[in-house]
Amino acid sequence: MRKDILGYRRLFGVLGPSTNTTVQPDFDGMRPPGVTNHYSRIYTPNAKAISDETFLAATMTISSNVLDAVRSVMTCEPHYLVMGMSAITFYGGAKGADEFQNKVENEAGVKVSVGSHACAAALAAYGGIKRIAFLSPYYPVANEQVRNYFSDMGYQTVRDVPLRAPSWTGIAEITEDTCRKTLRQLDGDDVDAILQVGTNLSMVRLAAEAERWLGKPVIAINTATYWHALRANGIQDKIQGLGRLLSEF
């Protein structure tokens, strides 16, 4: 059987909001030889002046356009899909995450890795984790959805911080210094692991560094999602420099 010259191991179709400028370079930075990423942008206006009242509605606009992006990327016949937008994968708890995943897979005819379930799988891979903390670029109303999801999956959220980005593109403008200070704010002896959600927030490398100075798992959602996609496809390459998840599990 003939194979794609560059993607001879796997072709990944990646779904990400049209305003997202982080997930594409993040995923490409984790791509092993023989795997190629093919991006399909989910159309969304650049939501601005976001508030608790408008955040969920704006993310649901993205959700409503997901299947158009699925149909577009499937024309290159990828073997697997990777979801590069995380908020909507947490809505409705574990049941909502399953429903979203099933909706995408039924349309595509192939499997998909979604951020919520990928984070839960990452926590399970480390093992021994019960109490977590997380940060997001979201608003409190969406952090509540994330807490509910992790509760469904058996994890207690001890603390969480919503960074309240002023726009979708503003998520990518949150500084590393802000993220570093937030990690220290979240940390404590009562926390077994720290997660970062929100795929347009660049924390892949900072999370890897933070594991060393905090001495516990620090998981960036883009790392977890791409790791999940690789492992779900039998690709066991250990990638160094991007945290224990990719280098050990």
CATH topology of the largest domain: Rossmann fold
Based on DSSP secondary structure assignment, what is the total number of beta strands? 8
Alpha carbon gyration radius: 17 Å
H/E element order? EHEHHEHHEHEHEHEHEHH
Strand order of the largest sheet: 2-1-3-4
Strand content: 15-25%
Query: Rough shape?
Result: globular
- Overall mean pLDDT: 96
Uncertain runs with pLDDT below 50, 5 residues or more?
none
What is the architecture of the largest domain at the second tier of CATH? 3-Layer(aba) Sandwich
Q: What class, by secondary structure content?
A: alpha/beta
Question: What is the domain tally?
Answer: 2
Oligomer: single chain
- Count of alpha and pi helical runs: 11
Major β-sheet profile: 4 strands, parallel
End-to-end CA span: 31 Å
The level of helicity is 40-55%
What is the CATH C-level name of the largest domain? Alpha Beta
